[in-house]
């Protein structure tokens, strides 16, 4: 993708692509079965993958009527910066698996739709290839095994105009993904990752030592690394994957400025707490002004509303925009974002809320 020209076709989308679920049905036809398994699947029996979707059905909306919404808007402020709307793109690695233009297409679409994107450490497109003037971009850090190896990535994110560092803390080990294993999924050998090797090399362990606990866990990030990170970047630091209120409190005490409440789309630890429940609990344990973001299972504008009602400042979508990418490149990603945003705007109007700040628990009911 070298120009915005394909996005001009946004108004000529075929009628069968009305919803994010329609994109899911299309995407499967564009991808090899093992890549589809990698993208759509999750850990073990994929119970969390399913619950991330079904949790929204248990929440009912209670609309208010007759309010004046003529000054309505979807904008928000985070860390002193203005964002036009609360639909962000979650970090997803190796995007050339899904479309030859990978992150180059995704980030172009995000920019056109003014959607804040979070670039994965495992991007196939280097940070310096992206528009340095786009203010809506954050960098997601996977810890590189040590401070010395992690620091250059942080430095580059600052240099190339990223506005926040998101460190993912819920995956010190990859999830046990039955489906992916059965399909023998592996990354192509020639795939380029400009910023990092795809896997942290395990430290050597002696025969008497445990490969996991004395090996990989030795190089996984610890709380003092988070403290170090906060002190060594000018950017706000967010932790992604926090689910326990005690972790949330500890992070904030260490200077972390925001949290992304997430179970990694159900890909790491099966049967983990539903992230929507975790969001509600964590919201009650922290000062009201700490930004909490949410991801997992957002597929409709009503889902966005419910996450905001339970305390999120913004939400991130993961698989849905990759379904758009696989189906139609940058155009597909842009259409996915636009579709969800329009659904959310209509939901706000039907709920009688003019601004994001008005959305709260008074608008939802759980039986
Ligand atoms: C992810 N996710 C992820 N998270 C992260 O912090 N760094 C990464 O590189 C990746 N890579 C990745 C690849 C694929 C194929 C998927 C599906 C997911 C997790 C992602 O950021 C997000 O938490 C979930 O995708 C959100 O759930 P939904 O929207 O996909 O239901």
Question: Which short descriptors sum up this protein?
Answer:
alpha/beta, 37% helix, eight-stranded parallel beta sheet, TIM Barrel, 12 helices, binds ligand FNR, two-stranded antiparallel sheet, 367 residues, single chain
CATH class value = Alpha Beta
The rough form would be described as globular
CATH superfamily: Aldolase class I
- Average pLDDT: 95
Using the coordinates shown, work out and report the CATH topology.
TIM Barrel
Q: Low-confidence parts lasting 5 or more residues at pLDDT below 50?
A: none
How many helices? The count is: 12
Rg measurement, Å: 20 Å
Task: Output the helix-strand order.
Answer: HHHEEEEHEEHEHHHEHEHEHEHE
Strand content: 5-15%
Can you count the beta strands? 12
Structural class: alpha/beta
The description of the largest β-sheet is: 8 strands, parallel
Detailed description of the structure:
The relative contact order is 0.20. This protein is of the alpha/beta class and 367 residues long. The strands form 3 sheets. The protein has an 8-stranded parallel beta sheet with strand order 4-11-10-9-8-7-6-5. Strands 1-12 form a two-stranded antiparallel sheet. The chain has 12 helices and 12 strands. The longest helix is centred in the last third of the chain and has 33 residues, at 319-351. The chain has a single domain (5-65, 75-185, 225-232, 253-366), classed as Aldolase class I (TIM Barrel, Alpha-Beta Barrel).
């Amino acid at each position: 993708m070298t120009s915005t020209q394909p996005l001009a076709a946004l108004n000529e989308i075929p009628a069968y692509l009305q919803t994010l679920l329609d994109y899911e049905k299309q995407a499967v036809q564009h991808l090899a079965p093992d890549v589809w398994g990698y993208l759509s699947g999750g850990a073990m029996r994929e119970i969390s993958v399913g619950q991330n979707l079904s949790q929204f059905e248990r929440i009912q909306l209670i609309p208010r009527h007759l309010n004046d919404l003529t000054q309505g808007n979807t904008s928000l402020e985070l860390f002193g910066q203005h964002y036009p709307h609360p639909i962000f793109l979650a970090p997803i690695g190796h995007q050339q698996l899904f479309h030859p233009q990978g992150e180059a297409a995704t980030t172009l679409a995000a920019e056109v739709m003014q959607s804040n994107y979070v670039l994965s450490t495992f991007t196939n497109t280097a940070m310096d290839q992206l528009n340095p003037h786009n203010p809506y971009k954050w960098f997601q850090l996977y810890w590189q095994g040590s401070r010395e190896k992690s620091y250059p990535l942080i430095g580059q994110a600052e240099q190339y105009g990223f506005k926040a560092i998101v460190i993912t803390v819920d995956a010190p080990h990859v999830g046990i993904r039955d489906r992916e294993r059965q399909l023998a999924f592996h990354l192509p050998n020639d795939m380029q990752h400009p910023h990092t090797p795809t896997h942290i090399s395990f430290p050597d362990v002696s025969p008497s030592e445990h490969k996991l606990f004395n090996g990989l866990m030795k190089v996984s990030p610890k709380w003092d690394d988070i403290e170090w990170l906060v002190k060594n970047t000018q950017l706000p630091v967010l932790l992604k994957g926090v689910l326990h209120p005690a972790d949330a409190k500890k992070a904030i005490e260490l200077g972390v400025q925001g949290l992304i409440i997430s179970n990694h789309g159900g890909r790491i630890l099966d049967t983990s707490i539903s992230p929507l429940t975790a969001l509600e609990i964590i919201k009650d344990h922290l000062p009201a002004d700490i930004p909490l973001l949410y991801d997992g299972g957002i597929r409709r504008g009503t889902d966005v509303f419910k996450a905001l009602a339970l305390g999120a400042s913004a939400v991130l979508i993961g698989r849905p925009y990759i379904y758009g990418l696989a189906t139609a490149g940058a155009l597909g990603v842009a259409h996915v974002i636009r579709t969800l945003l329009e659904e959310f705007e209509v939901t706000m109007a039907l709920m009688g809320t003019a601004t994001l700040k008005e959305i709260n628990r008074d608008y939802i009911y759980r039986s």
